[in-house]
Structure formats: structure tokens, C-alpha cells
Design goal:
By secondary structure, the chain is α/β, with parallel strands linked by helices. About 30% of the residues lie in helices and about 25% in strands. The strands form 3 sheets. Strands 1, 2, 3, 4, 5, 6 and 15 form a 7-stranded mixed beta sheet that branches. A 6-stranded mixed beta sheet has the order 9-10-11-12-13-14. Helix 2 runs parallel beside helix 4. It is globular, with a radius of gyration of 18 Å. The structure holds the ligand NC(=O)CCC(=O)C(=O)O.
Length: about 300
Amino acid sequence: MLGGIKLLQQSTAIFNKVRMASSNSCGFKAAVLQLTVSGDKSANVANALKRIQLAKQNGCTLAILPECFNAPYNTALFRQYSEVIPGGETCKALSQAAKSNQMYIVGGSIPEICDDNVYNTCTVWDPNGNLIAKHRKMHLFDINIPGGICFKESDALSPGNSLNTFKLGKFKIGLGICYDIRFSEMAALYRKEGCDMLIYPSAFNMTTGPLHWSLLIRARAVDCQAFVAVASPARITNSNYVAWGHSMIVDPWGKILDEATEKDMDLYIDLDFNARENMRQQIPTENQRRTDVYDTINVKNKF
Ligand SMILES: NC(=O)CCC(=O)C(=O)O
């Protein structure tokens, strides 16, 4: 824990072992799974496992699940669906899936219970089935747009207080959850930490989704010069919270490499990190920052 920023990373020994099996020098193939989420937790988890296996069959090294993929996205239900990490049924299933498919899994998010607090938490699993990172949503989704949407996660959830990264081979990946993407300071810290990619399991809504969703994803990609992947639940029009869908992966230039519709579907995308290196050399903003003028992030939050 340095300056309020905690990094959770696997040990070098595991890292080396996994790297051999799972990535090459310039990239890997990622799956973004846009799953239908119902009130039946076991069915949600079983569906995720099936789709992870399909991603493996399609040559993917990494599978990314949506925010709140095992439970309805509903403040009144978070506690009821919550489970402990890593001992709960969802974590056990994800760990097993990572091991049997020899994949990395970014387990979207699930309602986590810890010391009677409930968190919106993302877990990450390596191909040995080990939990290598955990991120609790830092910025709770509390908004009120008259005639649009009123949602108050803080009625039911506590916020996380740390930034979290993990390594896939030589690539460093920073984690956020949905509303976290609106806070560019957080992404800037991940960039400063050297992240090659940011992943945000998400569930935007029908009011903000149309204008803000791809804008924010592309903005974070361009200002961090990193890949950004976001996985949403599929849209179910008669549910309490209607998700925007449109899961996507954007490259460091801000180009949308692939985008889902609102329907239940998966994306499989080859990521070539050479493109990222080229961009960082051609537009070297990292070395051009005027930290003599705006030094808040750099001074307060040294990793
Ligand atoms: N689940 C969320 O955090 C939703 C965020 C969202 O929709 C937004 O507009 O921001």
C-alpha cells in the first residue's frame, strides 16, 4: 500500500509459469462476454462458465465478464445475492473455470460481503485457478436524472479504496468498474503505473449510454494510450435496470476494434500491443506533461 494505492499482483514464480502458456510477445486474444443476467444466480454462473469454455475454443487467453454478472443489478438485492470472496460459490466456479480452460478470467463483478459491508467487486483468476487481483468499485453510481434514471448504489454498497492491477504475461492491466470510468484521474494513475490495458466490467443505462458510453471508453483509451475493454450485460427491456449493452474493445488510438449490439453475444479480439508502443512513441504525451503546473496526481499518489 503506497500513498493510498494498493497493487495486488501475483508472485514472480506463478507469473513466469503462466506467461509461457498464455501469451506471446506482442499480444493475446481476449473475449468480451455480453451475458444475459437473470435472478437465478446458479443459472447466471453456469452460463458464464459455458461462454468461457467457448472463448477458450475460439483461442482466447483472457475472458472478461460483465458487471454484476451473477445477480440482478438492483440495490435492494445486492445483500441477498452477496457472497464472500474467495470462498463463495461464484468464486469457486470461476477459479475452476480458469484452471480447466487454462485461461485468465476477469470475473466481471459480483456483490461481495465482508465484515457486514457489501461491495461491488471484480475478481481476476489466472490459469492455475489463483485469485491474482481484486478490485472493489471505488466510485459508487449515485445519479439522479429527472425523467431519466435515479440510482443510488451507496444505499446498499460501500466503496473500495484502492487501485488494482494484474499482469498477463508482460502486459499490465488496470481494473475499474463501470462508473469508475468517468474518473480520468484514476485512469491517469493506471497509465502512470505503466498499464497497457484497462478493463471495466460495466452496466451503463439507457439514459447515459447513448451519448456517454463509447465517448468515455474512447477517451480513456486515448488519454492513457492503452487498450480499454468493457463488458456489459445484454439488454433485457423488461428488467428493473435496463443495461445499454454495446460491450467493446478500443485500441490506444481510440479505434473501436469490435462492438456488440445490445443482444446476448460475445466478442473475440486479437490484441496487438505493438500498436500501443508505436503510438506512445509518435505522440509522447507521457513525457510532455506539465507536472510543474499540475502536479496533484503525481505528487500525492506515487506508486
Ligand atoms: N453501473 C454503473 O456504474 C452505471 C454507470 C452509468 O451508467 C453511468 O452513466 O455512469
